[in-house]
């Protein structure tokens, strides 16, 4: 599948002056598409809108939404990636006040994740790459993913389906391409992302599900010592849903009942 649009038109090349290429000046969303419909799309739009406001991108959100829905209709089934950059710029960091954001849409096939990841669980690799603390960018899915690139390059062993990332102070933050939850005493816990990390769409959906199902949930600082006390651990994103975590380093956990309950609820949202 090679479908791609730039600013609403079929295209596969980009201006060399684009600030997304030069500085990572922009945002992106990766969305599952089924039957021509982008799933969890309002949450993707909400995060995109919040990111555009924080980066002062003059993004036409209604136009972007219309293009994404039309593009998803062309995709049918697969993964849709939306990249929004600040557009073209001259040399230098200072953005032009009248810059016109560029909208890039790309399609890809559904990822072939092993069903065992969801059913039997996965093990996490303990990444040495640390996430820098930058509250101005915390939570955003911005275009600079070099920390994740370095972290993902740390392992090639297929025994690990995902890696665990911490910040420079040692706090647990997230997976390389997922968010992390743990369960302790029936309470759902997930790392506080006010310093760094990506506030995932599926993470937001799970917190909303927890509230609706009267499951106690908290966002707080978590460390490896907290993992040692966890009853259940799982990771999530908006493409594969939820994967139970069986262990990391010397720590091990069962696939617990709260993880299974949330998996069932999430499968209905993603039709998987």
TrEMBL record:
GO terms for molecular function: 4-amino-4-deoxychorismate lyase activity. Pathway: Cofactor biosynthesis; tetrahydrofolate biosynthesis; 4-aminobenzoate from chorismate: step 2/2. It comes from the Bacteria. SUPFAM superfamilies: D-aminoacid aminotransferase-like PLP-dependent enzymes. It catalyses: 4-amino-4-deoxychorismate = 4-aminobenzoate + pyruvate + H(+). It is an enzyme of class 4 (lyase). Pfam families: Aminotran_4. Keywords: Folate biosynthesis, Lyase, Pyridoxal phosphate. Its cofactor is pyridoxal 5'-phosphate. Belongs to the class-IV pyridoxal-phosphate-dependent aminotransferase family. Homodimer. This is Aminodeoxychorismate lyase. It comes from Pseudomonas lutea. The gene is pabC.
